Amino acid sequence: MTLAQALQQSAHILSSNGIDDSHIEARMLLAHITKLSPVQIYTQPERVLNQEQEGNLQELVERRICREPAAYIVKHREFYGIDFYVDSRVLIPRPETELLVDMALEFTSSTYLARPLLIADIGTGCGAIAVSLALNLPNSKIYATDVSLLALEVARLNCEHHKVTDRITLLQGNLLEPLPEHVDLLVANLPYIKSSELATLSPEITKFEPRMAIDGGKSGLDYIRQLLEQTKERINNKGCLLLEIGQNQEKELDNLIRSCLGRANFRFTSDLNGVKRVVKINF
């Protein structure tokens, strides 16, 4: 079987089983088993797969049909132009979360200190936000917390791979509790989906991603409320908190911020789809 045939057949099988973007996903699986880049796949269509590669591709396609996310199958996901190792111990980084990194870098560019900037990534998961910031802010000091030791194992792998272990300190614990000092910038992508809405999500999420990374409790804002209640005790004067939120949560969060922080200075920023995705709170 040639590369072109393998790509066409795999895409057809995936599409027939209700997998969106079947051609892209088929190409991803084919690239994984052949160790070829997308460019090589398209420029060498007559290249023949060996028997082992054909068998491996069939196995991966079957896993994807069973709704296992492609990122878990190939063990990596790109985020902010950076390649990250991921597996079922962590939530798969989403493109919309890149807005958090953009806004964090925007804040740091206008902040002038006579010492390294202190940043905390809360609920770090695979470490995508922390590593992205560390690579773009080499003089910063970053804490990355997570309640899950399994997630921190994955984050450590990514810190080591990208050689930022000297800039990122991984801490196990609930939200801000493990932080050893006040910070200038808090960045958090916490679970914000209501428990009652989990059943409406795709099988890729409900069957494979860690529930603790998506379940925001009864209101969807349980962890965000806890974070807001802890923030004043952990953030420096003129500091900033950046929070990712879900669609249509801005009104409820507006009330929550005022309840927890009083007359706080905050604003919402929309993502590329027009969804209010990040709230920035200044202190």
Q: Which strand-content bin applies to the residues?
A: 15-25%
Mean pLDDT: 95
Class computed from helices, strands and strand pairing: alpha/beta
Strand order of the largest sheet: 5-4-3-6-7-9-8
- Summed up, the helix count is 11
Helix content: 25-40%
Count of domain modules: 2
Would you mind describing this structure in some detail?
The chain has 283 residues and is of the alpha/beta class. It has two domains: 3-66, Helicase, Ruva Protein, domain 3 (Orthogonal Bundle), CATH 1.10.8; 76-282, Rossmann fold, CATH 3.40.50. 40% of the residues lie in helices and 19% in strands. The chain has helices spanning 3-16, 22-34, 38-43, 51-65, 70-74, 98-109, 128-136, 149-161, 203-206, 222-231, 250-261, and strands at residues 76-79, 82-85, 118-122, 141-146, 168-172, 183-188, 235-244, 265-270, 276-282. The strands form two sheets. A seven-stranded mixed beta sheet has the order 5-4-3-6-7-9-8, with helices on one face. It has a two-stranded antiparallel ribbon with strand order 1-2. A hairpin with a 2-residue loop joins strand 1 (76-79) and strand 2 (82-85). Helix 1 crosses helix 2 (22-34) and helix 2 (22-34) packs antiparallel against helix 4. The longest helix is centred in the first third of the chain and has 15 residues, at 51-65.
Question: Summed up, what is this model?
Answer:
40% of the residues lie in helices and 19% in strands.
